[in-house]
Every structure is written in structure tokens, then in C-alpha cells.
From TrEMBL:
Gene name tied to this protein: ahpC
Entries under InterPro entries matching the protein: AhpC (IPR017559), AhpC/TSA (IPR000866), Peroxiredoxin (IPR050217), Peroxiredoxin_AhpC-typ (IPR024706), Peroxiredoxin_C (IPR019479), Thioredoxin-like_sf (IPR036249), Thioredoxin_domain (IPR013766)
Protein name in UniProt: Alkyl hydroperoxide reductase C
Function: Thiol-specific peroxidase that catalyzes the reduction of hydrogen peroxide and organic hydroperoxides to water and alcohols, respectively. Plays a role in cell protection against oxidative stress by detoxifying peroxides.
GO process terms (BP): cell redox homeostasis; cellular response to stress; hydrogen peroxide catabolic process; response to oxidative stress
GO molecular function: NADH-dependent peroxiredoxin activity; thioredoxin peroxidase activity
Length: 189
């Protein structure tokens, strides 16, 4: 088993992304100062991947309003991302950076590389403005993710970050009650 990367700082990286019709450099420094999602997927031109990336694109405006930037990452090149963007109506609606990681360095940094295939697992990581990983979720290749559930998790992470001493219970939604862990709550929930 890998040691948990929760609360660790993201490791340095340098890559090229396809973003809004351009090839742009991206490093770990671009993730600092705001909430970020790093969203790994196995490969362009596949089956479950476009459903996930399209779902993320559908939630991107809400995430932006929450101060969150999304970075999708696969071991494809940024050139392949552009070709996929140009060929697919689903991928064409993406407004967030699509990072190419052909060497697998970023994918390995986050512990989601399938070495024998040279592909990433479906890994989702939420990073706070200080560069610490606050949410880590990894799925098998056949299990697609839900951007709506990710939005809820980010809302909870942002709430906890700004409300010292409070925690969010299961299925918490903004506006719902939180908990303040204390001795008098033990055994009462």
C-alpha cells in the first residue's frame, strides 16, 4: 500500500497543456494561490474518459465561481489533446487546461501510474491554495467519476479550511449543519 498523500505538498513538475486553442506551460506553481483539481484519466480517444471530461466541463463554470481551477492530465501529449479537442464535440466544450504527461512524471508524482500500461488510473486530487492535497480519490479504469460529487467535496474542504474547529458530516451540503468535535459528542451521534 502507498502511504497517504493527504496533507502533503504537490511535487514540482513542468508540462505543456492544451488550453483554449493554445499550448501553454504549466508547473506546480500555477496551482498555488487558489483551489485546484488535478483530474487524471487513462487516455484520449477512449470511452469512459470523454464522459468524465465532459461532465467536468459541464461543472466548470460552477467550479470557477468557487475559485477552483481544473487541470486534466493523461499520459498523452498536448498535441493529442488538441486533436481530440478538434475531433470530439464532447471534448470541444472543455475550457480547462488539458495537461500532457507523456513521460508519466506527474502521474507518478500523484501515485496513479499503471506502469505496465503507461496509463493513469482515474485519480482526482483537490489541492488547497497552499499546495497541499486535501482530497485524494482513485478509481479503477471502468468506474467513471461524478463532477457533482466532486463539487460537494470541494465545498466541504473549503468550508473546513475557513471554519476552524468544525467538520462536515457525511453528505454535507452548504448551509447544512456541521459538527464541532468535542468530548460531549462522543457516542451521541
Amino acid at each position: 500500500m502507498n502511504q497517504s498523500i493527504i496533507n502533503t505538498e504537490i511535487k514540482p513538475f513542468s508540462a505543456t497543456a492544451f488550453h483554449k486553442g493554445e499550448f501553454v506551460p504549466v508547473t506546480e506553481k500555477d496551482l498555488l494561490g487558489k483551489w485546484s483539481v488535478v483530474f487524471f484519466y487513462p487516455a484520449d480517444f477512449t470511452f469512459v474518459c470523454p464522459t468524465e471530461l465532459g461532465d467536468m466541463a459541464d461543472h466548470y463554470e460552477k467550479l470557477q465561481a468557487m475559485g477552483v481551477e481544473v487541470y486534466s492530465v493523461s499520459t498523452d501529449t498536448h498535441f493529442t489533446h488538441k486533436a481530440w479537442h478538434d475531433a470530439s464535440d464532447t471534448i470541444n466544450k472543455i475550457q480547462y487546461p488539458m495537461i500532457g504527461d507523456p513521460t508519466g512524471a506527474i502521474t507518478r508524482n500523484f501515485g496513479v501510474m499503471i506502469e505496465e500500461d503507461g496509463l493513469a488510473l482515474r485519480g482526482t486530487f483537490v489541492i488547497n491554495p497552499e499546495g497541499q492535497i486535501k482530497v485524494s480519490e482513485v478509481h479503477d479504469l471502468g468506474i467513471g467519476r461524478s463532477a457533482a460529487e466532486l463539487v460537494r467535496k470541494i465545498q466541504a474542504a473549503q468550508y473546513v479550511a475557513t471554519h476552524d474547529g468544525e467538520v462536515c458530516p457525511a453528505a454535507w451540503q452548504p448551509g447544512a449543519e456541521t459538527l464541532a468535535p468535542s468530548l460531549d459528542l462522543v457516542g451521541k451521534i
